[in-house]
Amino acid sequence: MSTLADARRAKGPMGPHGTRLPAARSVRYNPAPSELQELTSRMPQARHTSFGNYNVQTRVTSRSKGSTYLVTDDPSLTTGQAISRMEGERAAHLQDEYIATRPMLVIDGYIGNEPEHRARARLYIEESNANIAGMQAQLYFPPDAPADEWEPELVMIYTPNLPMPDYPSDRLIAVDLEAGVTRVFNSDYFGESKKGGLRMWNDRVFTAGGLAMHAGCKVIPTADGEKTVLIIGLSGTGKTTTTFTRQNDSQPVQDDFVGLLPQGKVVGTENGCFAKTFGLDARHEPAIHGAVTKPDAYLENVSQAEVNGPVDFFDTSYTQNGRATFPMSSLGIWRDPREIGPVDYLLILNRNDNIIPVVARLTGPQAAAYFMLGETQGTSAGGASEEGRALRVPGTNPFFPLRDEMQGNRFLELLETRPFEVYLLNTGRVGGATGSPESIKVEIEDSGAAVKAIAERSISWESDPDFGYEVASALPGINDPELLQPRRLYERTGRADEYRAWVARFKRERVEFLEGYPGLEPAIIDAVR
Prior knowledge:
It is a single chain. The chain is α/β, with parallel strands linked by helices. It has three domains: 6-30 and 61-208, Phosphoenolpyruvate Carboxykinase, domain 1; 272-331, Phosphoenolpyruvate Carboxykinase, domain 2 (Beta Complex), CATH 2.170.8; 345-526, Phosphoenolpyruvate Carboxykinase, domain 3. Helices cover 27% and strands 24% of the residues. An eight-stranded mixed sheet has the order 1-6-7-8-10-9-4-5, sandwiched between helices.
């Protein structure tokens, strides 16, 4: 067993700033991958698959936004919810008492691998939920010090089986940025561990003059040299698929979160991937499919009829938010984020089903406006309250812990330090929802063609008269002009009035939404009037 001495264990592991975390009945420090797999195999909700890995069915199947609170006596610091420091201390005391009776696991590692911007992190979690520990260990960059010398800057204290009455669903995620500690109560969904550390890292990057982005990153070789591309989007809108789809032998750098710093410098966060598995098809996403089906991958909420049997990536009877983690090394094509150049292109994904073209080019404050709007259709990753709804999430980053207008303003500042190009990509449909005979689906191949053409600068552009951004008049690999300019589809199908109604609605709603952020730069709002 991977433990330290009993005397040290009784005092509790180290927390931020040299403090001690709550003592537990027992603690295993940084178990080997094989030990974490063995502990996972003991979980009654874990099933061995035909791939040789484990698939865990959780009670909670998505992130718990409604149960997430910033711990502060100044609620104006955040656009989200807040609880007082006194209430945070009350919750911490209850959790500490519970942990004293439980066997716990410690997982150490870095968020990020760039020395100047990485953070020492520690996950402290109940042993009974070893899959979360195993999944997190795959995403951290490995520690470079033994556990008794590891002084973490960011800590997750995680009790999946401790209810917190008087909070939504008896669940609480308490985020204390000042202490560098997030406490999770009563959620066994791995995303709360992953996002908990990254949420606190958001604050660190912002303080350093940058902006943490809910973004994938890839590098694409072109005749003009290698291009660095960031892809932002809500979970489930195609971010991971777009990141791993190959163009010109492109290489993925990061799946889910990056830091963008002045002069376009990009820093990575994770040594692994937390991929959505619904609809995973080896024909369209061979790299992800290959990694998910290896024995060291962890699966979460993927449909499986019997122990040791196959899984069904297309069955949604339990949830569409099936997930898997795996090391980036499992892809065989990963590029270390320390080796890439500054950002050249940023793609904002909008899974839409009406008048958004497959690709549009944005400039200056207009780019900051669409970044701030963060428009898309909600998916199962956000829970039942978001799935299928039209959403606006600033920066498509629901994990930014401060005021959302700070994201839009900082984005504009960073764009001025390096004027990278910004594009809007629709990964949904044009002309109507699924089932509409007059709509067109944007296929993975269409999105791939648009990304390739952006990198190679082979798109012909013209100005859109309604929104002022540029739309494609010709794009290699996409022969349907109605995907490039949705107005044509609406006019051909006798729905020109419907198109004009959508234009008027978007313009009105976008201005109203942005005006709801009093600290936002006026130029950003003016860009969508």
